[in-house]
Amino acid sequence: MKTGLASGEKRPRRRVLPNTVKRRIENNLNDLSAKEWVRETVSVFVQKGLGRNHKDAQIEREHPAPFSFQDVGRLIEFFTKEKQSVLDPFVGVGSTLKACALLNRNGVGIELVERYYQLAKQRLAKEVDKSLLRTARQVIVHADATEEIEKFDDHFFDFIVTSPPYWRILHKVDHKAKQERLNNNLDVKYSEDTRDLGNVENYDDFVDKLSEFFENCSRILKPKKYLCIVVSDFRHKNRYYMFHSDLANRLQRKYYDIKGVTILYQKHKRVFPYGYPYDYVPNIHHQYILIVQNRANKK
């Protein structure tokens, strides 16, 4: 029988490798599979919604800048595990808390405007099964978020997500606002409250105040955990404001690292003939989700 060895040649001893232990990959961020994880890192989301005529979309529509619970739910599911704690400091009518309840996360929402605070409570009662509210605790606080966040312990939250005021842009009542909101007796601005950041007169002052607020949130967010802010650029008079960029540049100065930006494509929005036939004026059909990480060693 042929062995492949020359006459008198000894077969080399087989090298025995040391026992290797297969390293178990542990997902410390969320409860997603690898396939689900990769899908959520695509940098464009298509906005979801129940449709304006759905019975569970009526309270959401009361807010002048509605925030879909399905969209915020995707962020919560990626950046937290079940039973972890989520904060929305500008909770509006409670989309974040509804998503937290459906995903078994503990949520805290802060809302300055009494009307939206009451609508958020009403929404949880009407749109969320009571058994889910017993499993995961949802807390709505009627307060000024700039003051309320000082009451939380250091490193209390696993994730902060919110859609803050977009300056005074909602004060502009154009034909779009008239058709979509005024004609349906819906609000076109947040409030008249002087504490409302949406009422700050000067744009640069507004961005400074908002970025300072998020810097203060760094204390109550755990190290290396994430903050997601949903914002939109906008036009005011003849100027186009790069709000997402201005805010991002300020946030990375002290306590945060910018990890990326996701485009939230609002494909269901109506198109209006802005500028026609004299000037280019865009129909802005997307928002930006700024994804920033709290630094472990803050400078």
What's the arrangement of secondary structure elements?
Elements: H1 34-40, E1 44-46, H2 69-79, E2 85-88, H3 95-103, E3 106-111, H4 114-127, H5 130-135, E4 138-142, H6 145-148, E5 157-162, H7 175-180, H8 203-217, E6 221-231, E7 234-236, E8 239-241, H9 243-251, E9 256-265, E10 286-294
Parallel strand pairs: 1-9, 2-3, 2-5, 3-4, 5-6
Antiparallel strand pairs: 6-10, 7-8, 9-10
Helix pairs in contact: 2-3, 8-9
Structural notes for this entry:
This protein is of the alpha/beta class. It has one domain (57-294): 3-Layer(aba) Sandwich (Rossmann fold). Helix content is 27%, strand content 20%. It is built from nine helices and ten strands. The chain has helices at residues 34-40, 69-79, 95-103, 114-127, 130-135, 145-148, 175-180, 203-217, 243-251; strands spanning 44-46, 85-88, 106-111, 138-142, 157-162, 221-231, 234-236, 239-241, 256-265, 286-294. Strands 1-9-10-6-5-2-3-4 form an eight-stranded mixed beta sheet, sandwiched between helices. Strand 7 (234-236) and strand 8 (239-241) form a beta hairpin. The chain starts with 33 loop residues before the first helix and ends in a 5-residue tail after the last strand. The model has no long low-confidence stretch (mean pLDDT 88).
